[in-house]
Write a structure and sequence with these properties.
mainly alpha; 2 helices; 0% strand
Amino acid sequence: MKGLKKITSYILITFVLLITVVSLLGIWEVISLEDIMRKIFTSLFIIFVASVIVLFIFSVLIRDSEYNKD
């Protein structure tokens, strides 16, 4: 479980760095932010919803299987 937490934290750090770089490029008008930021936030929302569903499934299935063993 610790390995999964480390991988998840590295992925989230990568997302934060990516959004920061894109935002800085948008501030300096190197790229247009309108489409990119909308797509980034939509993608992050989809990832968030999927992770909530997976977390719910894991918490329910793992708890049930742990309590059934005792």
